[in-house]
Amino acid sequence: MVLSISSRRLMKELKEIETKGTPPGIQLLKADDMETWIFLISVLGDETVYKGETFALKLKFEPGYPIDYPQVTFLSDDQYQPPLHPHVYSNGHICASILGSEWSPVLTALSICITIQSMLASCKKKERPPGNDRYVRSAPLNPKLTRWAYEDDTV
Amino acid sequence: MNTNHPLLASLADEPPPFPDSHPQLQRLDRSVLCTICKEIFRAPVTVTCGHTFCSECIRSSLSVMTDKKCPLCHATITEGSIRRNRAMEEVTEAWETARDSLITLSQPVAGPSRRRPPPEPNSKSSSSTSANLKRPRRSDESRSQSPNKISKKSTDHVDHVVSSDSEEEEQVQEISENDEGECPLCSARMAIASIPMHIERGCPPVSKKKSAPGNQKADWRKVFSMAGSTKEKNVSMKRITSPNYHLATPTDLRNILNEYSLPTVGDKPALEARVRQWIILFNSNLDTEHPKSLSALRAKLNAEEISKKRDKERGRDEAVENLKTTEGFAEHVRNSGAEFERLRKEIMERDAKRAKAAKGLEASSAIEVD
Questions:
Q1: A67, A68, A81: best mutation site toward chain B, by most B Cβ within 10 Å?
Q2: Which of B63, B132, B288, B329 has a Cα at 20 to 30 A from B126?
């Protein structure tokens, strides 16, 4: 069977995770197929406002990956809730430039996790983004359909 | 998680990695990998900032980027700045050839129970013979497509391409006439006299017939070699310049597809996608010492189109299938309940105003929900 470019690339990433493991605070929860992977993310150390909390990050890969970026959202279900963060909406959508205009095909699933982890780590105040309710009310299911405006350069 | 992930079984054909005892070899091994596809470089090219990628990888990346930047350092780059990296291709090939024997040499010395023969003479001879078999080494040469230079990669489709390719090879020789020049924009070769008009028209792909005036020698050769008598189109093995997709009419796109004997079915978006993908495949195929035949490229384009279509359909089926389960339906309601409510109100208000027929309402709500 000839594998598509995206599947080959994802398998290489998976193999890398299997052999080398994940960085501290990041754990692969589910990768049953070449479409949806779920990582558990927690921020380590005492400085963080998310001490003791664990979040589930869902990555949904499309056939165009890695040229095209994946859909990345925090899970919002009975077990996991998205973090209270100025760039994370309560439906799990994340406003981060690498998940949009700043995406680069050299990034990997793990590097997305690391970026999100450091985005959480640099957070000082737990709050929802302004306009959260308005956005969540009308947000499309796929965060890629949202037209993000990146205001904060610190992420 | 277990270490033998079921999905990884299909990676079994991958070459084994170097042991941790040789970090320098691991580094060398990584340095011939494209950072986009994570595979060994195929048709490596370099962009303005000096970073190297597979030609197809960087061309596809640039085709979807709105502001075109190097994926690694974010320096501004253009497609025109892509240059073939012949040295890297040579290094990559040399490394691939040497890798097996290096793996053998890098294995920790086996215990006495293995009774392995001393590695030096054995591996040396076997590696050199296998290398000779696999890839006849060629000294310095320009990229050409004469049949005896087809590499082992393309030998499998040599049989069915020879007929169509022989003509293209003819082409390559013909266009090196003295009275021809290179277009400074698209570097297509043509009679020097016709270059200004060619640029004026926005660099359309050069068809041999049009640019023939003055090139009598080539014309006569065509007559004598019977090349002119066949109906098969002459395909110029020169880089394709992308058309302006905003201005191009479906007919323009079909003309380009026709030029390369590609299917011309579908609406404008489908045609545009096909032209885009073909230009990526065709242009990156010119960036290597071992180009594939045009028929192999056509087959690749077709396979990609089919798999894209299948993925699209599967996604849709899944969404519908999900709604059938109680969980999936509950989730859908949770996710889109608010949106549904808002749309319903909107529609009811408008309905009260206009008292429109129910048919129109359904249509408009369907569009917006999506």
A1: A67
A2: B288
Domain span holding position A89: 5-145
Domain of residue B228: give its range. 162-238
Per-residue pLDDT band at B335 (split at 50, 70, 90): low
Asked whether residue B259 falls in the same domain as residue B317, the answer is yes
Residue B246 lies in a domain: yes
pLDDT at B154 over 50: no
Number of structural domains, chain B?
4
Residue B283 sits in the same domain as residue B313: yes
Contact A141 B335 (CB under 8 A): yes
Per-residue pLDDT tens over the stretch B163-222: 444 444 444 444 444 577 777 777 777 777 777 777 777 777 665 544 445 566 666 665
Among A1, A11, A37, which would you mutate to test the B interface (most chain B Cβ atoms within 10 Å of its Cβ)?
A: A11
Pure H helices in B75-225: 86-106, 119-134, 158-174, 195-200, 216-225
| A1 touches A7 (CB < 8 A) | no
What is the three-class DSSP state of B82?
A: coil
- The CATH number assigned to the domain holding A53 equals 3.10.110.10
Residues contacting B10, CB < 8 A, separation 6+: A1, A3, A11
The pLDDT, as a whole number, for residue B133 is 42
Backbone φ and ψ for B108, nearest 5 degrees, come out as: -60, 145
Size of interface A-B (CB pairs under 8 A): 71
Cross-chain Cβ contact A106/B36 below 8 Å: yes
As for the ipTM of the complex, it is 0.83
Q: Are B66 and A101 within 8 A, CB to CB? A: yes
CB contact under 8 A, B64 and A1: no
Residue B30 belongs to domain with CATH number: 3.30.40.10
Q: Which residues of A touch B (CB under 8 A)?
A: 1-5, 8-9, 11-15, 18-19, 28, 31-34, 62-64, 66-68, 91, 101, 104-106, 136-138, 141
**Order of strands across the sheet with B44-46?**
B52-54, B44-46, B83-84
Place of tokens 């026709």: B258
Whether B1 is covered by a domain: the verdict is no
For chain A, what is the domain count? 1
Chain A positions in Cβ-Cβ contact with residue B303 (cut-off 8 Å): 2
